[in-house]
Amino acid sequence: MGLDPFSVIVWGSGELTELRADRADAIREWVNRGGHLVIILPAVSQLWTGGKDTNPLHDIMPYVVFNRRENVSLLRYRPLLSGKTDTPFPQRGVLHTFTINPRALPSEATPILNGPDGECVVVRRLVGAGAVTLVGFDFNDTRFSQFENVEADIFWHRVLGRSGNLKPLFADPTRVDTATRPRWMIDNEIPRLINITGVSAIGALVGFLVFALYWLVVGPPLFFLLKRKDQHRHSWVAFVIGGVFFTVLAWGLATFLRPLRTTATHFTVLDHVYGQPVQRARSWASVLVPRYGSATISVGNPTGIDDRSPSAIAAFESPSEDAATAASFPDSRGYPIDTRSPDAIRVPVRATVKQVQMDWSGSPTWDMIRPVQPAGAPPLPEGEQPVIRAFPPNAEIPPGAPLVIGTVRHNLPGPITDGFVILVRGQTPVKGNLGATVQGVEAVGRAMVLPTFDPGVDLDLSTIFATGSGAGDLQQWLSSQTAAAGNSAFGVVSNTVDAGTLENRLYASAFLHASRQPDFSSGTASTAATTRQLLHGFDLSRWMTQPCIIIIGLVGKQGGDGIESPVPLFVDGEPVPSKGLTFVRWVYPLSPAPPPVGPPEEQTGRQPRPTSKPTEPAEGN
């Protein structure tokens, strides 16, 4: 839980011997839940290359053979590290390369970046929803840092899946007008998705109708009716009888309308990497407990006392909620949370709703998307599994051949709607400069609309990624998920923060690090400032660095008419039925295709800065 705020940890230096017991277990669990551990190998790395006796993270390391090379000509690797061509660069040094173990599964060792001769210098292993990446360059060598020879947007963007040019494209960055840049909160719709409003609204309406009917029957209309019949002396009798009748009616309707069982309304983000034995999810839920006293709400197991559980639950309040009214409800008593058992909390209940946030990781609870043999195809030999294949960026595609060949199917509890199928074919060639994709990630691929994907129905990916259509460029799609400053068509005007549909917000949250970055060359931002408060750590941009298929979409409906949550939720050890919406994100790793590296003599360097300063912002703009 202490590492949870970090999406990436780069181990650049330090004694591996200090990583023992609970510390190693914490990093291993953090990686399994979606963290990305990047290890920069030192010049002498015997501890990292050793077995479990010397390396406590040995079981999650890439399954490779380490090759330590001395006196290597580092100048040939300059396009991988820097776009500078006019500063001193280390001539020779120590370099680690990696040879994939022949017995390794594809997920256990994936080359991300190769050197100019095709030798792997950055390799990755998938671990649950996360990954461990090894970097063969010794960045602790002061010759790299002395002249800033490792530029983040040249090297690290290709390792982490980040985007944008970190160097200003104009001479005076202080002239940039950022005061009026719009702010776009992409996850502020989540509290609305879990609000339970129908029950209270019906109760209030029934109460109003009963009260109105009471005054019509027992009030002045009844008195005037008795007076017309000269029976007004009995009005007190009618009043008592009417009062008793409507009291019984009110109590009966209240009892009938009162919830009798514990229920929950949820919104969940669910991740699954094909071939990995775990899923991870973050879920928000409004739990209705129809009794008074206290209740134990737990996630992941019915007892809530398993210290080894990777799940965590906590009370949730909308970030936009006014602090002055956050505790205005009568059920505002404080209660302790036992940090030794983070998957359970005991809270006071008063027949009302308790909102919680849950982080869960465990064995798959839903039968997710998987590749299958298409109908009519011959069965595979025993022991073989259906696979999905795609052409890498530099491959020669036969005329009429689709970019992707494969069929997928799922058995989720409902259809996947409002989705996209994203193909990442690989990265652009390494030239030492950001080239045409200065505002985007160095990834080549497509993003195509996913038709409604029903359970048990085969989806032929070759029909979606037919080469005859040039639509769906990945870079353009990523740019379209970013709110442009002042673009009223998208919904962003002035300083308005409400922009885009729910789907737009979810897609933007999934690839926030890979989305189009602002261009300040004109003196004002070209995009709104995208921010998030609830979805930290759930970014899929890392997958932009390696070939893969990503299917994203919605399962269920908003509110109480939706589908059961994939996150196991319990109250006092009993399963809680839940209804709501789930954002499904499924990733299928493809065969690796590291980008080719151009020779250093062909480097063009970074794009030159304009000699003129940006235009002066208009007054009041």
What is the element layout, followed by pairings?
Layout: E1 8-11, H1 22-32, E2 36-40, H2 46-49, E3 64-73, H3 78-81, E4 92-100, E5 110-114, E6 120-127, E7 130-135, H4 142-146, H5 152-160, E8 183-185, H6 190-194, H7 198-218, H8 220-228, H9 235-257, E9 263-273, E10 279-288, E11 292-299, E12 312-315, E13 344-350, E14 353-362, E15 370-372, E16 389-390, E17 404-405, E18 407-409, E19 416-427, E20 443-450, E21 459-460, H10 461-464, H11 474-480, H12 502-510, E22 529-531, E23 548-556, E24 569-571, E25 574-575, E26 578-589
Helix pairs in contact: 7-8, 7-9
Radius of gyration: 30 Å
**Beginning-to-end CA distance, first to last residue:** 44 Å
The 3D shape can be described as elongated
The amount of beta strand, in percent, is 25-35%
Helix percentage range: 10-25%
- Characterize the biggest β-sheet: 8 strands, mixed
Overall number of strands: 26
Low confidence ranges: 303-307, 321-328, 487-497, 610-621
Sheet with the most strands: spatial strand order? 12-14-10-9-26-23-19-20
User: Which structural class do the helices and strands define?
Assistant: alpha+beta
Number of distinct helices: 12
How confident is the prediction overall: mean pLDDT?
82
